[in-house]
Design a protein that fits this description.
247 residues; 7 helices; mainly alpha; two-stranded parallel ribbon
Length: 247
């Protein structure tokens, strides 16, 4: 009887990890068929950007659905306390510690964005939309779509996977495993991004753990993604931001 109870307990611990694997692989299987960038098409003002917008927003919406809403529904149905997976507002023993876990990583992200040499900005892969003139509306929609996509991404990585691994293996092994998977998820991107996923993954995982929430990692990741796109637009010789209609 005790073996049966232990077995049931193990299944409940391992199920979220299996759910992560299923949801993430399902997203990869679908998103790989949605190609936004087409380097054979020159960057211009033709109809190509409209098609790119639709595909990009579609792919990021699918990410929100498969990485966020789908596993969230399963967690909500099977677990009476879904807050255990980081679905709560940030908390900490003291206000000072909470502010520290928000302000210090935020400062690190901002320093990276502003101090990174211009030649290190990857304009070959970013931004994903090949638009010569970026209006404020384009920037807003790009930021919003990043935020919605990263809700699902951060929930499945720094929520579902991380806190499930902590229950199974403890904090050090959980952070190491979470960071490894996060790094592997970037292998299809430039090698600098894969290496950069290691320190970023560690910071996001520790921030999620010490604030018991995925909210601050979500905000940090969104800041990094949107800030990187804005820098890439400014660094790209064929792109610029149009701040007003008169321009």
């Amino acid at each position: 009887m005790s073996e049966t109870i232990m077995s049931a307990s193990n299944i409940r611990q391992l199920l979220p990890i299996a759910l992560f694997g299923f949801s993430f692989l399902l997203y990869l299987s679908i998103s790989r068929h949605i190609s936004v960038r087409d380097d054979s098409v020159p960057i211009d003002g033709s109809s190509a950007p409209s098609r790119q917008r639709r595909l990009l927003y579609l792919r990021r919406s699918i990410g929100l659905l498969l990485l966020g809403l789908l596993p969230l529904m399963v967690v909500w149905l099977l677990y009476p306390d879904p807050q255990r997976f980081g679905l709560r507002w940030p908390t900490a023993p003291t206000v000072t510690r909470l502010v520290g876990w928000y302000s210090i990583p935020t400062l690190a992200v901002l320093l990276f964005l502003f101090l990174r040499p211009r030649y290190r900005i990857n304009i070959k892969h970013y931004p994903e939309l090949q638009i010569t003139e970026w209006s404020t509306r384009d920037i807003a929609w790009n930021a919003l779509s990043w935020f919605l996509y990263l809700i699902g991404y951060e929930f499945i990585f720094r929520g579902l996977l991380l806190f499930s691994l902590i229950e199974v293996a403890g904090l050090p092994y959980a952070v190491a495993a979470n960071t490894l998977v996060y790094c592997l998820a970037h292998l299809h991107k430039p090698i600098e991004e894969s290496w950069g996923a290691i320190p970023l993954g560690i910071v996001l995982a520790l921030t999620a753990f010490y604030t018991s929430s995925m909210v601050i990692p979500l905000l940090l990741h969104t800041l990094l993604a949107v800030g990187n796109d804005l820098q890439a637009i400014r660094a790209h010789p064929q792109m610029h931001i149009v701040w007003s209609k008169s321009q």
